[in-house]
């Protein structure tokens, strides 16, 4: 009987762990270590939640832009994951995900952690985009069957029967956004495009805006990050949304439709901030929006209006803060146009958003609308976002963990050495290539 396989999806912001075949991770926690200021105690992963005020912590993240830079911290996080999912490394195999075009030095360091420090019997290394594409194929097939059922069992006249093995994965990560074309389980590394605009940059920009306009919150990154997740959205027309906020910034002025308030934690009666006066909130009352809450009202809160959409706008216009990089739309379009002509219709019609940043409301609609004019030919453009985009990579890795011939055994690693066991990006361990496969 083959040993069980543990699945680890280590992202820059969060780590997800489980076993092969799981539909959801059994353990989720921040992929970092932290130390309270002026103390020697080190908190690993979910132990950070024992400290209510994260401004008192000094964080150390093992990954930067998806690349391993702090092997010691990653080892501590892995050890915490294995204990939580009840995995015995010396009796198990492991599946780990990696970023697009991961450098050999980072792969070698990861293998040394898995084989030397933990002693796994075998490991399978998979690009995150390949894992997401495996799950995306299942989602797209279910979606096609649903559309066919709605149309009376006949294919839609507006859409061709596309090949679900050919998909473009747009990963909205914590420190970067990456567009990766995937065909039949192989990632085309020559067409991978990456932007340094991620959730971390958006949170930092939102923190700077609020600190400049209202209150100094430079040490409250965790609170501003929650504000971003609860209240921010992508504007479909940035200029039109900005006009709504014109003339409403006075202390006793009438609030616009996008005005909201975020209650700050005091770590005594309120452990975490929460949003109020938001149209998306179940307890929203239109009568409360007629006038703003008075400044002497307790508890303490932040007023956010244009900040709600100015932060996520960096995904599409990073030039606003002087960042000389293209926006998300140009990133996806350039990745598609770098691929062969036979792949482009499938890729443009099957753009899958994954990662925590894909949860931002309005992102899918804005990307789909702006992507159409950038295609050189009249291709169908369809952007799809799964229900839980941050779990897509883990779910795909848990599915691919069943492929027994893709594992590199510890005996082979010890016999051939770490340098010879580094395989090409986006290809299985046996070295076979998918580049020549039919696109359909």
Report on the architecture of this protein.
There is one protein chain. Helix 3 (128-150) crosses helix 11 and helix 4 (199-213) crosses helix 5 (221-231). Mean pLDDT is 83; it is low at 279-286, 288-297 and 424-440. It contains 12 helices and 20 strands. The protein is globular and about 70 Å long. The chain is of the alpha+beta class. The strands form 5 sheets. The protein has a 6-stranded mixed sheet, with helices on both faces. Strands 11, 12, 13, 14, 18 and 19 form a 6-stranded mixed sheet that branches. Helices cover 29% and strands 18% of the residues.
List keywords for this structure.
440 residues, alpha+beta, 6-stranded mixed sheet, 12 helices, disordered C terminus
